[in-house]
């Protein structure tokens, strides 16, 4: 057999292409200014630790009332702030409400200060000024200079362990502060109890229990220092009436047990110039013993740079599941930053041995799969979980197993609505676990008991006492005078019910299919033919008076107005279009949505939307509109979909601190970007179809978990060439405006031919 000789330059070229450093394109700082609510700190894909700087201590309430300024700090960090308070270990990415901010650590020098101080007088506390010029934010790595104390702070992480490295000046007054009072969306009574135990001169353990968004949340830790503690102590700021007989001891200094609701501890060291003090800080939902096991399993040594490399290798593996080619560096930065944000949540919620805390506060073992938490399902069912079904099917299946565990442990016998840290927080509407489960089952990514999963969906959907469901079941709509946001709820319940029906049909459970297909048509009951909009109805059956289709407040909708929400019938666009006057009239309606002016007064009362997230009256910064630009595909004007989605990509996303037009919402905004950039989108999760749009890259290769690859090849792509002339699937003309999940999973090539002129 003759050997095939390949020129060396070709081998080198292939190797260079295969080893492209995609980490360089990820900008974690994107979305940290204004409305994005992302954080810039260190985490690994789907990691339990999110070690990141917090830039202020804005309280949730002031004078007994909600403090609206706190909304800016859902992720703990705002780019425009001038000081850093410290580095805490748990954060949400992109949410519109918050919690967490556990176990804040801050290194300082000089006279000990245990108060964080204020932004306008940072010298009054332990916070420090910093500059973005010394700030570096990469996947699994964060660095910044704390200017007031001349300390270089560096952070990295494994799944369950945060790794700090602080380079100190020479001093006999080096302090590490552990603030157990600090939190995000904090208030005086949020801490139920905190506990710190100094086990020896390098090991400290403890826990924190809080009553916040998650009302019964407990988190354990194990903290190890790289050098022995010289001395330590704490202050308790709680006004305790009863103090027991612990007064026999001086507990404030070098006493190994610290307990109370409002504790700040400190650990002192002597340092030489340039000396590094390192801290490994492990979390556990179960116990301090579990935290210590996590620490020993994931970061047994002290090589900070190696842990950083390991974390970035994990990111490289995940980011390379989609390899794109583009002549635009900005496009690569947008895309891989979106991939990064999409792979932060849901988060791991179990120890290395599989142990985790359930909703009933008992300890369980995941038993062979990863248990996850942080389910922002009102957002993520739309595109994030469909994205996972495509390129993270194994993880998505584990996430559904976690949802089914939630159901089994729930006192209400319901699937999660918005769940985190062994708690249901009941945020937002619908029961969109149903959509996530249905999407996986309909796409044959269901390595679990599908009939049991369907039973959980049905039980959840029949829970009459939940958020107007009894009215919905009896009347086919929710009366606005009985239960607010009634139109939004009716529409979203109807969609979820359609998802249940599809699974029931696939499993040949036709009684369930008939029941829920009937319920899925309830969107018709809130449509007002006289106005052409979905409109709230009252208990007596009449439509609500004084209806304003532009108003976002007190009109029967949540995070949207009638213009946007009236387009939410993803499971039956054809019927919706017919109700609204037919294809031509509906197309004109969509055109008006994108081109009309929405005066500021119509969203003045909504904290989650600013002008940044709006195009005309199309609100991309809120999820109910995310499918809307694709609806032109149902009206005979697909070129308008192509034009609109490319416009949205340009207007709503760019790689910078203010690069997101709204809350990233645990990756949903980013998942929209990923799908749309690739050229298709899941308008109706629970179906197997992806609606075609206009790809914004030259080429993309999806590395599928089944070992196959799916390639999107775009001919003549450019900023002006947004219109699709023809599409080939595996060299055969595609005479439809969608591809199926099987088309992708079977592998092959989808080829787009682009032009600067629409094909009408």
UniProtKB/TrEMBL annotation:
Annotated Glycosyl hydrolase family domain residues: 291-755
Keyword tags: Calcium, Signal
Keyword Electron transport belongs to the record: no
GO cellular component, one term: cytosol
Residue ranges occupied by any Glycosyl hydrolase family 92 N-terminal domain in the UniProt entry: 25-284
Organism domain of life: Bacteria
InterPro entries, sorted: 6-hairpin_glycosidase_sf, GH-type_carb-bd, GH92_a_mannosidase_put, GH92_N, Glyco_hydro_92, PNGase
Record PANTHER family: PEPTIDE N-GLYCANASE PNGASE -RELATED, SECRETED PROTEIN
Subunit structure: Monomer.
Protein name: Putative alpha-1,2-mannosidase
Species this protein is from: Chitinophaga polysaccharea
């Amino acid at each position: 057999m003759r050997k095939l000789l390949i020129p060396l330059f070709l081998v080198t070229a292939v190797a260079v292409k295969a080893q492209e450093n995609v980490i360089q394109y990820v900008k974690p700082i994107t979305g940290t200014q204004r409305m994005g609510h992302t954080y810039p700190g260190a985490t690994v894909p789907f990691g339990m630790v999110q070690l990141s700087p917090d830039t202020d201590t804005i309280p949730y309430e002031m004078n007994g009332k909600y403090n609206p300024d706190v909304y800016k700090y859902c992720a703990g960090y705002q780019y425009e702030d001038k000081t850093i308070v410290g580095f805490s270990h748990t954060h949400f990415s992109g949410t519109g409400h918050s919690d967490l901010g556990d176990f804040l650590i801050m290194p300082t020098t000089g006279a000990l200060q245990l108060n964080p101080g204020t932004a306008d007088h940072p010298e009054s506390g332990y916070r420090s000024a910093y500059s973005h010029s010394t700030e570096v934010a990469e996947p699994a790595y964060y660095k910044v200079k704390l200017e007031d104390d001349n300390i270089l702070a560096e952070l990295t992480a494994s799944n369950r362990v945060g790794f700090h490295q602080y380079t100190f000046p020479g001093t006999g007054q080096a302090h590490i502060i552990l603030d157990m009072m600090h939190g995000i969306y904090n208030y005086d009574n949020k801490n139920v109890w905190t506990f710190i135990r100094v086990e020896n001169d390098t090991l400290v353990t403890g826990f924190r229990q809080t009553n916040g968004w998650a009302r019964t949340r407990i988190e354990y830790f194990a903290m190890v220092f790289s050098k022995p503690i010289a001395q330590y102590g704490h202050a308790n700021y709680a006004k305790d009436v009863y103090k027991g007989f612990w007064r026999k001891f001086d507990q404030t200094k070098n006493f190994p047990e610290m307990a109370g609701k409002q504790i700040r501890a400190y650990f002192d060291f002597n340092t030489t110039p340039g000396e590094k003090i390192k801290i490994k800080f492990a979390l556990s939902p179960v116990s301090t013993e579990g935290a210590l096991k996590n620490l020993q399993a994931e970061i047994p040594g002290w090589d900070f740079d190696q842990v950083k490399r390991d974390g970035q290798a994990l990111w490289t593996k995940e980011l390379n599941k989609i390899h794109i080619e583009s002549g635009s560096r900005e496009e690569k930065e947008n895309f891989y930053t979106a991939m990064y944000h999409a792979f932060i949540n849901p988060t791991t919620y179990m120890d290395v041995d599989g142990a985790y805390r359930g909703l009933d506060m008992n300890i369980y073992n995941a038993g062979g799969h990863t248990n996850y938490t942080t389910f922002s399902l009102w957002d993520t069912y739309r595109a994030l979980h469909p994205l996972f079904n495509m390129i993270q099917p194994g993880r998505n299946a584990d996430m559904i197993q976690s949802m089914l565990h939630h159901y089994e442990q729930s006192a209400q016998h319901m699937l999660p609505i918005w769940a985190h840290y062994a708690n249901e927080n009941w945020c937002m509407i619908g029961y969109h676990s149903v959509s996530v489960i249905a999407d996986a089952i309909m796409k044959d990514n269901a390595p679990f008991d599908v009939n049991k999963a369907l039973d959980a969906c049905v039980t959840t959907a029949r829970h009459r006492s939940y958020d107007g469901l009894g009215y919905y079941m009896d009347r086919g709509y929710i009366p606005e005078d009985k239960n607010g946001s009634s139109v939004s709820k009716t529409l979203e319940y109807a969609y979820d019910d359609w998802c249940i029906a599809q699974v029931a049909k696939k499993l040949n459970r036709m009684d369930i299919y008939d029941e829920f297909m009937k319920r899925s048509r309830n969107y018709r009951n809130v449509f007002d033919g006289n106005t052409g909009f979905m409109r709230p109805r009252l208990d007596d059956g009449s439509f609500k008076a004084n209806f304003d289709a532009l108003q976002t407040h007190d009109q029967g909708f949540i995070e949207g107005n009638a213009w946007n929400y009236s387009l939410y019938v993803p499971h039956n666009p054809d019927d919706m279009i017919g109700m609204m006057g037919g294809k031509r009239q509906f197309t004109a309606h969509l055109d008006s949505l994108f081109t009309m002016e929405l005066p500021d007064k119509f969203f003045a009362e909504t904290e989650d939307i600013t002008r940044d997230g709006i195009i005309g009256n199309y609100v991309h910064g809120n999820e109910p509109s995310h499918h809307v630009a694709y609806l032109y595909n149902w009206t005979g004007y697909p070129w308008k979909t192509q034009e609109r989605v490319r416009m949205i990509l340009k207007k709503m996303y760019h790689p910078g601190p203010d690069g997101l037009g709204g809350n990233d919402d645990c990756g949903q905004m980013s998942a929209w970007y990923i799908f749309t950039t690739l050229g298709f989108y899941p308008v109706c999760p629970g179906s197997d179809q992806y609606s075609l749009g206009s790809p914004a890259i030259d080429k993309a290769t999806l590395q599928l978990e089944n070992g196959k690859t799916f390639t999107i090849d775009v001919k003549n792509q450019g900023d002006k060439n947004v219109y699709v002339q023809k599409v080939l699937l595996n060299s055969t003309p595609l005479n439809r405006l969608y591809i199926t999940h099987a088309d992708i999973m079977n592998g092959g090539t989808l080829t787009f031919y682009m032009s600067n002129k629409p094909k009408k």
